[in-house]
Amino acid sequence: MDIYQKRAKGLLEEFKAFALKGNVVDLAVAVVIGAAFGKIVSSLVDNIVIPLTALLSGGVDLTDLKVTLGPTELAYGVFLQSVVDFVIVAFCIFIAIKIIRSLERKEEQKPESQKTVEPTEEVKLLREIRDSLNK
Asked: Of 59, 76, 92, which closes a domain?
């Protein structure tokens, strides 16, 4: 094995150790779930929230707002509509996170009697010794 093969093998082993660390795998899972959650939020906003907002605001569409300065046309309405869309999406995500956190808090507040705690290996071993001595 020459020096380049050793370096390649070492690099491959180092990459394998990096890629299989818990943090990297957790991050990959978070990205996939985040993408799926993003689609859910986008669908909620596009199909429910924005139509309701348009209904409540009388169908106001800001994208047609423009100002002409000489030969240049500034379509600032598109920007304003993007800001409004962002605020709506951010608010929906905020509400979803608040709901998730409140559910987590409720789970944490369960009485100790409802939580099952697995005994440690030492406790299991001591119980086995106790049981064998009682025979």
From this structure: 59
Whole-angstrom distance, CA of residue 58 vs CA of residue 45: 18
Would the pTM count as exceeding 0.70?
Answer: no
pLDDT at 113: 61
pLDDT in tens, 46-78: 788 778 877 877 777 777 888 999 999 998 888
Residue 135 within a domain: no
Give the tokens for residue 110. 């369960």
Domain boundary (59, 81, 108) is at 59
* Tokens, residue 57: 């605001």
Tokens of residue 134, six digits: 């009682």
Q: How far apart are CA 129 and CA 71, in angstroms?
A: 91
CA 43 – CA 105 distance, rounded (Å): 28
* Angstrom distance (rounded) from CA 66 to CA 78: 9
Q: Which domain holds residue 65?
A: 61-130
